[in-house]
Amino acid sequence: MSESLYTQLLDLACGAFLLAAVVILWRRELAAIVRIFALQGIALAAVAALLGVHEERWDLVVVAVGIGVMRAGVLPYLMHRALAAQEAGRDPYETGSAETRETQPLVNVAASLLTAAALTLLAYAVAQPLTELDPTPATQALPVGLAVVLIGFFVLVTRRRALAQVVGFLLLDNGITATAFLATTGVPLIVELGVSFDVLLAVLVLQLLTTRMRAAFGTTDIDDLRELHD
Amino acid sequence: MTSLTTVVLLTTPVAVPLAAAGGYMLTSLSQAAADVREPARSPVRQPALVGAAGGRVDRAAAAPPPGGDGTRRADWFGLVSPLAVIACGAVLAATRGDDEAVTACGGLLRADALTVWMLLVVGAVALIACATAPSYLAGERAAARADARSTALFHALVQAFLAAMCLAVLTANLGVLWVAIEATTIVTAFLVGHRRTRTSVEAAWKYVVICSAGIALAFLGTVLIYYAARQAGISEASALNWPTLVDRAGQLDPDVTRLGMTLVILGFGAKAGLVPLHAWLPDAHSQAPAPVSALMSGVLLSVAFTAILRYQVIADAALGTGYTRTLLTGIALLTLALAAALLLAQRDYKRMLAYSSMEHMSLIALGAAIGSPLARTALLLHIAGHGLAKAVAFCASGHILHLTRTTRIGRVRGLLARAPGVGGVFGLAVVALLAFPPFSLFASELGIVRAGFAARMGWAAAVALVLVLIAFAALAARTARMLLGPGPAACTDESPATSLWPLALGLVACAALGIATGPLTDLLQDAAQAIGAR
C-alpha cells in the first residue's frame, strides 16, 4: 500500500468515525442511534486494521477483527435486545413510543451539534503537544479520538434515557480505543483484553440495571431518579 | 526467599478470594437449578440448607428453618480469604529484605513495602466486614429479604471484590491496575443494588455510570503515559511497567505527561471520592449493605488512591513536584469544603458516614500533595486508621438499621440506653473518626498538618484545619443526638453481643496503631519511601 493511499484511507476512516459520533447527537430514535453506533464500530476496526497493514503487524489485524466483532456486533446486539424488551413491555394503549425515543434531551439538537463543533476544536487544541511529539499521519488524526471522547461525555450528561446514556459511555470508550491505536498502535494485548472484558461487563450490568429500573420506576427516564439527594 | 514461595505469596491474595467466589457462585447456581426443578414445591424461593463446601442442597429435610447450620457455616466460610490475605501480608512483611521489591509472574505481580502495607489494611478491613456479614445476613433472612441463593450471590460478589482489590494492589503493570480497579466497579454495582429497591437501583445506576466514565478518563491518561513512554524509547512490553517508568521518568515528554497525569488524577480521583466526580459516593455508600459499605469506604477508596500515589512518583520525576502538588491541593481542599458543608446539613446517618469518608480522603490527598517523608508516612497511617474506624462505623450502622428500621438521624434516640453494645461501638468509632487520641487518626492528622506547616504549605493546612473543625462539630452533634437521651419506653432490644467482637477488635487495632506502630514501623517508613518521600 503506498504512503499516500494509506494516509487517505486512514483519514477517511477517522472522518467516518467522527461523523458517526455527530450523527448520534443528531438522531433521537434510540434504534437509529444503536445502528449508527455499530457503524462507528466498523470505522474503528478499519482504523486498527489499516494501522496493522501499514506496519505489517498481523497481530494488530487480528485485534482489529476482535474489535469489529465486539463494537459492531456484540454491543449493538445487546443494546438492541434491551430496546426490544422495552418495546415488548410497553403498554399497548399508551400513545407515542416514549420509551424508545429521546423525547427531551437537556440540550436541543441544534445546540448539541454546535457544541460538538466546539468540542472538536477543543480536542484539536488540546492534542497539539501530542501531535508535535511524533508527527505521523496516525498521530495527526489523533484529535479525532479525543473529540469523540468529549462528544461521548456530552451525550452522557445531556441525554435522559438510560440507553442513550449507555451509548454515551460507549462513545467515550470508542474514542479512547481510537486514541490508543492512533497514538501507539494499541496498548499491550493483555490490557486490551482486560479493557474489552470490562466494557462488555459494564454494558451487561447497565442493561440489567435498566431492566430493574423499569421494574421499579416503570420508565427508564433518568429524571425519575431523584429520590437520593441532599 | 525462593522463587516458588514468592509466586505462592503473591498469587494467594488474588487466588483464594477468586476460588471462594467461584465456590459461592456454584452454590448459587445449584440453588437456582433446584428452584427450577421444583417450582411447585417452592414457588417463592425458599431458604434451604446449603453445604459450605460443595453446595449440596438438602431438600430431603422438609421445610428447613431459615438460616440453618449449613447456611451459617457458609457465611463464616467467607472469613478464609481475608485471613489468607493478612497471612500473606504478614509473611511478606517478615521476610522482606532490606532491598527492593519481590516480583513474580514475569514482573506482572510485584510486592514492595507499599503493597505489603495495603495488603495488611485490605485484609484487616475485609476481616471486620466478613465477620459482620453473618449477623447482617441472619437479619436479612429473618426479615425474609434474602434467601439461600441471594446470600450465596452476595458472598460470591464480596469475594470477587476482594480479589480485584488485591490484584490492584499487587500488580506492577499500570494497565492491569486500571483493569482491576474498573473490575471493582462492575462487581460492586450488584452489591450496591442488592436490595433491589427504587433507591438502591438509582444508586447503582449512578455508581456505574459516574465511576465507569470517570475511570475511562484514567484509562485515557494511562494511554497517554504509554504513548510518552514509547516515544522515550521504552519497549512495548515494559512501557506500562511501573518500576521501568519510575526509572526512566526523566525521559518522558513533559507536555504529554502533564495531560496524562491530569486525566489519571481526575479518573482515579472519581473512584477515590474526590471532586469533581464524587456524586456517586454518598448514594452508593448509603444504599449498599452494611458490610459492603464498610469495604467500599474502608479500603476501595484508598486502593484507588494508591493508584494516584503510584502515578505521582512518575509525574514528580518527569515534571517536578509543583504540578501534581497544585492539582492535588486544589482537589483536596474543594472536596474537604464540600464534605464539611454537606455534613452540616445531613439527616441520614449512613450518608453522614459517607461524607466523613470524603473528608478523610481529602486529608489523604492533602498529605500526598505535601509529599514530605512525614506527610507520606502520616497519610499511609491515615489510610489504615480510617479503614479500620470507618469499617467499624459502617458495620455498627448496619446493626442500628436492623434495630431502628430507619436511617434518619432524627428518628434514632437514646441508642446507648436502648442497646449499649451497638451504641457504644458506634460512638467509639465516630470518636475515632473525629481523630481523638488514642486512635491512630489523631497521630496521622497531626502528622499531615505538621508536615504542611514544615513544607511551607501552612495556608493549605490552616484552611484544612478550619474545615475539619466544621466537619467535627457537625459529626459530633449528630452522633450525640443519636446516642444520648432516654431510650424508648419498651426497651426489648437485645444487643447482639456475639456479633460485636469483630467491631471491638477493629477499634482495639485502631487504638493500638495510634499508640505505637510497633513491628510495623519499618514497613510504614519503607512504604513511604517506595512512593518517593522526598
From TrEMBL, chain A:
Mode of membrane association: Multi-pass membrane protein
Entry annotated with the keyword Membrane: yes
Principal location listed in the UniProt entry: membrane
InterPro entries per UniProt: HyfE-like
Keywords: Cell membrane, Membrane, Transmembrane, Transmembrane helix
Ranges annotated as spanning the membrane: 6-26, 33-54, 60-78, 106-126, 138-156, 163-183, 189-209
Keyword Membrane: yes
Domain of life of the organism encoding this protein: Bacteria
A Gene Ontology term for the protein's cellular component: plasma membrane
Location of the protein in the cell: Cell membrane
Protein name per Swiss-Prot or TrEMBL: Hydrogenase
Upper taxonomic lineage: Bacteria, Bacillati, Actinomycetota, Actinomycetes, Kitasatosporales
From TrEMBL, chain B:
Cleaved signal peptide residues: 1-33
Main location, first listed in the record: membrane
GO cellular component terms listed in the entry, alphabetical order: plasma membrane
GO biological process, one term: ATP synthesis coupled electron transport
Domain NADH:quinone oxidoreductase/Mrp antiporter transmembrane per the UniProt entry, residue ranges: 173-470
Segments crossing the lipid bilayer: 116-139, 151-170, 176-193, 205-229, 259-281, 293-314, 326-345, 352-371, 383-403, 415-437, 457-477
Highest taxon of the lineage: Bacteria
Pfam families listed in its UniProt record: Proton_antipo_M
Membrane topology: Multi-pass membrane protein
InterPro entries the record matches: ComplexI-like_HydComp (IPR052175), NADH_UbQ_OxRdtase (IPR003918), ND/Mrp_TM (IPR001750)
This protein's UniProt keywords: Cell membrane, Membrane, Oxidoreductase, Signal, Transmembrane, Transmembrane helix
Compartments reported by the entry: Cell membrane; Membrane
Molecular-function GO terms, alphabetical: NADH dehydrogenase (ubiquinone) activity; oxidoreductase activity
Listed name of the protein: Hydrogenase
Organism, scientific name: Streptomyces lunaelactis
Lineage per the UniProt record: Bacteria, Bacillati, Actinomycetota, Actinomycetes, Kitasatosporales
